[in-house]
Amino acid sequence: MSPVVRLEPITPANRAQLVALSVAAEQRDFVATNADSLCEADGNRACFPFAIAVDGSVVGFAMYALDPDDGNYWIYRLMIDQRHQHRGIGRAALAELIALMSALPNCPRIVLGVEPGNSAARALYESAGFVATGEVIGGEAVMCLTC
């Protein structure tokens, strides 16, 4: 059974909890820290950050944005704290994020970038229907999902 995951707005209370979350050491090169991501969201109105919560506890972070360069909606961040991985939370959070983004006006596709060595993330995205476009931006392989 999949966990019940909620995407919650950022508040002062959950912001501190988000900053305390981290991925495993071998994953640190794959995703920005939540502190850095929250700073990015604070400075960019195109970014929409969320706390990922399960049973009232903050367990991860997600953020999407409308990219002004290409006009596409991108998943900028998806991270699950190392203590909560391998429980289906990432898959459930991704499904929630896709549902939210697919309901946005003028969102024909959702795009993301994945580090080449991050095979777990790539497998997760492929299982949700994302396909590689063949593009590489900033060293990340671009994947997209048609809404």
**What is the average per-residue confidence, as pLDDT, rounded to a whole number?**
93
CATH fold-level label of the domain at 5-106: Aminopeptidase
Helical residues, percent = 25-40%
**Secondary structure tally, helices:** 4
Radius of gyration: 14 Å
Give the low-pLDDT segments: none
In total, the number of strands is 7
Architecture of the domain at 5-106, CATH level 2?
3-Layer(aba) Sandwich
Question: At the fourth CATH level, what is the homologous superfamily of the domain at 5-106?
Answer: Gcn5-related N-acetyltransferase (GNAT)
Helix-strand category: alpha+beta
Q: Strand percentage, roughly?
A: 25-35%
**Distance from first to last alpha carbon:** 25 Å
What report would you give on this structure?
The chain is an alpha+beta fold and 147 residues long. It has a domain at 5-106: Gcn5-related N-acetyltransferase (GNAT) (Aminopeptidase), CATH 3.40.630.30. Helices cover 29% and strands 34% of the residues. The chain has 4 helices and 7 strands; from the N terminus they run βααβββαβαββ. The protein has a 7-stranded mixed sheet, with helices on both faces. Strand 6 (131-137) and strand 7 form a beta hairpin. The chain is globular and about 35 Å long. 28% of the residues are buried. The mean pLDDT is 93.
